[in-house]
Predict the structure.
Amino acid sequence: MSERRRFVRIEFHAKTELTQGPFTWPVKLLDLSLKGLLIEKPEPWLGNPEETFVADIHLSNEVEVRMEVLLAHDDHGHLGFVCKHIDLDSIAHLRRLVELNLPDNGELERELAALIQI
């Protein structure tokens, strides 16, 4: 695991779309953290790595996590994104999802402390 990675990734599958300008790609979500997400690279891939994307992760019919993300890496058919902006409702839903998938609350507190330090 990379020394730079401070956030636990949660393997999670949910209906997810990635949007940039006029392009929208339905994508396969592989994992999620408080600071980003990993997806399978869609085909055809026309995304501009220099511009912001919007990721919409549908947790249920009523609950969605929406974040503005930047491409952090593109390797081996996977795209990794880092979150640049997330609204309060989305971060609350994401926090709860992470909380439910971590083995102990101490880990969640470390995750949140690392998020605040960025």
